[in-house]
Amino acid sequence: MSQILNHEISIEKTNYSRIKEQDINNTSFGKVFSDHMLVATYKNDSWQEVKIVPYGNLEMSPSMSSLHYGQAVFEGLKAYRSPDGKPLLFRPEANHKRINESAFRLCMPPIPEDIFMTGLKELIRLDADWIPTQDGSVLYIRPIYFATDESVGLKPASSYKFIIISCPVGAYYSEPVKLIVTDKYIRAAEGGTGAAKCAGNYGGSLLADMEAKQQGYDNVLWLDGKEKKYIEECGTMNVAFVINDVVVTPKLTGTILAGITRDSVLTLLRDMGVKVEERLISIDEVVKDYQDGNLSEAFGMGTAATIAHISTINYQGSDMILPPVSERKYAPQVLQRLEDIKTARVTDTYGWVCQL
Ligand code: COI
Predict the structure, then answer these.
(1) 110 touches ligand 1 (CB under 6 Å)
(2) Tell me: the pLDDT tens digits for 16-41?
(3) In CATH, what is the architecture of 2-169?
(4) Taking the model in full, what pTM does it have?
(5) Among protein residues, the one whose CA lies closest to atom 6 of ligand 1
(6) Which residues of 98-125 are buried (b: 16+ CB within 10 A; e: fewer)?
């Protein structure tokens, strides 16, 4: 047992590490899981049991309320290795803040800082060998939080599980991505859950995503739910455009996820002396800038992908083909800077990197 402020954490180590069976530097995204997981239980109005146990299946009731009504939120963050092999986390406090904001929107109680932060650090310290050593591969960490009431009555649940699992991963996209604008589906609407990282937002995006793939594209470029005019996100990422040497990204209107990668990228760009604008940006403006030769780059920003260069955007049947990545100036540079900070190859002056 170790004391984590108000909550104790018990640790049951596996007696058989599966790491020997895996090439952790070469796994497909999200299919192989590390040896342990953190499981915390909320019931009777308080957080009760916090434990680290061998990774394994959970027992659940078919009446478990999150399966029915979607009180389920999650996070994504990554663990890296410093040049001397030390495990590092990137901005975990920001994930803790965001999961509680998502939880608030879904009527779920907040997760105490000691459970999230100390539990996370203990878990990753224990599974540090699972952090890949090869450049471009990392340990992706997935905190999940869901309602466990055995009841099909619709109401905020009174029992929950908070779990953290992790998996070694390579690049989320191996190539620049092709997007297609949809005006058939929307991802979020004013007053809805668009800013929350809740499971339903992702489930609701799948049909549009599948149709995009059937048409030969990788992801959807989402427009706003009211006028179908303003750009919001791309696939599961925030999006930015470089127009006349200014990086323009949709402002956070409440329908867009406040990406931690988005915030990190914008901060770095500004500190690199690049002009950044967070504002409404219409698809018509992007098309006009493309036609006038002012659109030099577009990229997605998210934890899994970090930065995904966008090669093509289809709007109303026409492809806008963007310059090759080798000719791009801003996204490759900021990506390099971000990766250098995350892996402690350069000094972190932002207080983003967290040692275990
Ligand atoms: C992430 O980028 O971390 C996400 O949560 C998106 C997910 C679809 C991989």
Answers:
(1) no
(2) 999 998 889 888 889 999 999 999 99
(3) 2-Layer Sandwich (3.30)
(4) 0.96
(5) 236
(6) bbbebbebbebbebbebbbbbbbbbbbe
